[in-house]
Amino acid sequence: METDTRSQRSAYVTQETISDEEQGYDLDLFCIPKHYAADLERVYIPHGLILDRTERLAREIMKEMGGHHIVALCVLKGGYKFFADLLDYIKALNRNSDRSIPMTVDFIRLKSYCNDQSTGEIKVIGGDDLSTLTGKNVLIVEDIIDTGKTMKTLLQLLKQYNPKMVKVASLLVKRTPRSVGYRPDCEFLDNTYFLLNFIISRIYYMLCSAFLTNCALHTFHSIPFQCR
């Protein structure tokens, strides 16, 4: 399996930082569903920015992985909407390319949380026939990287099946002192506050509603995708 060190990763996308002092956008600028309005404070990443950066990410993924059969592996449940949007862009690029390649989709669930606390134990659910990944380019799509332990466990599991290449894209990365140092290939960055289950379990809805927000007193201080 091809591995990536930090020095080997390519800086595809210019980094645009949203600092900790970023005030975000007023809710009055957006169409906020009434049943969410009382729970939200500010909009930090508008939907258009998310879609533009997702499209750019898809382009770079195809440059990196588009020469061989790609298996797109979605980490459920939270990663589904991000996965669907990213895959739509990748499929469009692949469909219109003069060197289109086979693409398949698979799903897996990783469990390491009970309520809002990490249990320290990782359970991999689904993906019974991971032997189909042998010799393929594997793209793992996740909604959030917390400590990185869960993803490292998944990568160790996949290594047993000898994929040709593995890349990881995560919508959010939590900055935490508990991090094991793992960083995905492509990411948003998040701050040290725990993202409410309300947002993470419904992240697909927030994306459809045209924004990523902060909820109650918890904040999203993030930067758009950066690929290394």
The strand order across the widest sheet is 5-4-3-6-7-8-10
Order of helices and strands: EHEHEHEEEHEEHHEE
Overall CATH architecture: 3-Layer(aba) Sandwich
Shape: globular
The CATH C-level class name: Alpha Beta
Q: How far apart lie the N and C ends?
A: 18 Å
Mean model confidence by pLDDT: 70
Number of helical segments? 6
- Which secondary-structure class do the elements indicate? alpha/beta
Work out the radius of gyration. Answer: 17 Å
The name of the CATH topology is Rossmann fold
Tell me what portion of residues adopts beta-strand conformation. 25-35%
Helix fraction bin:
25-40%
Pathway: Purine metabolism; IMP biosynthesis via salvage pathway; IMP from hypoxanthine: step 1/1
Enzyme class: transferase
Main location: cytoplasm
Subcellular location: Cytoplasm
Describe this structure in words.
One of its GO terms (biological process) is guanine salvage. The two termini are about 20 Å apart. The chain is globular and about 50 Å long. The chain has one domain (about 25-215): Rossmann fold (3-Layer(aba) Sandwich). Mean pLDDT is about 70; it is low at about 5-15 and about 190-228. The relative contact order is 0.22. The chain is built from six helices and ten strands. The longest helix is centred in the N-terminal third of the chain and has 19 residues, at about 45-65. It has about 230 residues and is α/β, with parallel strands linked by helices.
